[in-house]
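To start, an entry.
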Amino acid sequence: MGQVIKRGLLQSFDPTTYTASVLILEATSTFLTLVPVATHLDGTSAQVGAYCAVLFFDEQNLDDAVVLAVYPNGSQGVPSPAPGRVVMVTPVQQVNAVAITNNTTQTFTMGTNIPAGAKAILFKAYFTSPTTGTFIQIAPHAGDLTGNATIGNLAAANGYVDGIGIVAVDSNGSIDIKANGGNCTVTLYTYGYVL
């Protein structure tokens, strides 16, 4: 009665029961169904055709097992697009009261708590303006400003408007912020990212 890890080929994954069907590679005639799957895996990573590691708590009891991990099998089992993972971090001020002239876009590179390779940031931003009706747009650098985050319209001159959101970053970890309707003074914090 020893524990053993065997390599398998994932045949199916059922997210409603968190079970999988697996073909054990060491014994090609052994096809297991309803094998529990570790809860850190999900439908974006449990791809049919991927290799998987199956832990048997009792090598003699094929019903006492769990799928621990999945990994690519050549070109099979590779999620497309790659799965996103949200990571929460201590908030860091990335933009500190930067004045952006009306109808002007400025670029900011996210740093400190945002690693290279991040796909998006979780942000809190706010702005003030001497002009009512102003708003800001936030997008990945050189991205579509109208199709991403917008914060505003400022209801009273010299008031503040704030908002939170998720916005993609470019391959350098940069975003663009544009002031619309008047000059804006912008502050932005990041508190998470998506890999």
Q: What stands out?
A: The chain has a mean pLDDT of 92.
